Amino acid sequence: MAQAKTLIQATLGAQSLGAKVLIVLGGSVLIALGAQVSVPMLPVPMTLQTLAVLLVGLTAGSRLGGSAVLAYLGQGAMGLPVFAGGAFGLAPLMGPTAGFLWGFVALAFAAGWLVESGLARGIWRTLAGLLAISAALYVPGLLWLTAVTPLDLARAAQVGMVPFLLGDAVKALIAALIVSGGWAALSARRS
Questions:
Q1: Alpha carbons 9 and 145: distance in angstroms, whole number
Q2: Residues with Cβ within 8 Å of residue 149, at least 6 apart in sequence
Q3: Are 28 and 69 spatial neighbours (Cβ–Cβ below 8 Å)?
Q4: Sign of the CA dihedral with 149 first, then 154, 159, and 160 last
Q5: d(Cα 66, Cα 57) in Å, to the nearest integer?
Q6: Tens digit of pLDDT for each residue in 22-79?
Q7: d(CA 70, CA 57)
Q8: For 145-171, b where at least 16 C-beta lie within 10 A, e where not — what string?
Q9: Are 101 and 73 in contact (CB under 8 A)?
């Protein structure tokens, strides 16, 4: 058997279609729970969604991680209160935070790709990769924020990026520690 590339592959082995559906749904639930841990800030609240998205991508891989975020967005669009503060419907998917919400798909995919490509091995390499892809999330987030509000790019960065930089770095570190610890525990269990 080829070496597993993600924690879920290493833990569960080959996955049936049913198992993949459960992984996607489980990932979407984790993201929804992370969204409910929220510090209200305008126009973008601070949540644990980013941490959850990183963990889902790192553990499930690029395709299943990205699919979990799409499922999460779909659940919110269908009326489930999964967005920050229990929000739901189409408004969050078109409002000031929409660039970040849609950017989460790429963030989860990129986190999974880091693992699948072998770039995310060990705490420090994983952290470096997570910091880079977390920073890239600000591109769609800020561009959309400037498109739907009267903010120019500088002011959008002041309210939609600067207050979140330290928190996102801490979330990236926590994700790197959790996933590296998961690999270490799995390795110890097998020896």
A1: 37
A2: 43, 96, 156
A3: yes
A4: positive
A5: 7
A6: 999 999 999 999 999 988 777 777 899 999 999 999 999 999 999 999 999 999 999 9
A7: 12
A8: bbeeeebeeeebbebbbeebeeebeeb
A9: yes
Block residue for tokens 């705490």: 123
Decide: residue 78, CB within 10 A, 0-12 exposed, 13-18 middle, 19+ buried.
Answer: exposed
Angle at 63 between CA 60 and CA 64, to 5 degrees: 40
Q: Is 46 left (phi over 0), alpha (psi -120 to 50) or beta?
A: beta
Q: Is the pTM of this model over 0.90?
A: yes
How many residues appear in the chain?
Answer: 191
Render 115-138 in DSSP notation, one character per residue.
HHTT---SHHHHHHHHHHHHHHTH
47 in helix, strand or coil?
strand
Cα separation, 63 vs 5, in Å, equals: 13
pLDDT in tens, 150-175: 999 999 999 999 999 999 999 999 99
The CA-based angle 114-165-93, given to 5 degrees, is 75
Lookup result for tokens 């189409």:
90
Tokens read off for 40? 């209200």
